[in-house]
Amino acid sequence: MDWLAKYWWILVLVFLLGVLINVIKDLSRVDHKKFLANKPDLPPHRDFNDKWDDDDDWPKQDQPKK
């Protein structure tokens, strides 16, 4: 078990390399042109801050400075 204490980082690198290879393989299977051709419509965005849009605290630009 002494080798595990010394070389644990090699096992982590091998694991990360395996994850990276699987991600590349899975992303190569994705057909982005087919997805973009049949892309579903997104519902409208609900903005819950719209009630504060009219109540701006910023001064108007055409007001003279006091």
TrEMBL record:
Name where it's found: Cell membrane
Give the region (Disordered) as residue ranges. 38-66
Q: Does the keyword Membrane apply?
A: yes
What residue intervals traverse the membrane? 6-24
Q: Pfam family example for this protein? A: UPF0370
Q: Per its UniProt record, what InterPro entries does this chain match?
A: UPF0370 (IPR020910)
- Membrane association type: Single-pass membrane protein
Protein's recorded name: UPF0370 protein E0L21_02765
Q: Which organism is it from?
A: Kosakonia quasisacchari
Organism classification: Bacteria, Pseudomonadati, Pseudomonadota, Gammaproteobacteria, Enterobacterales
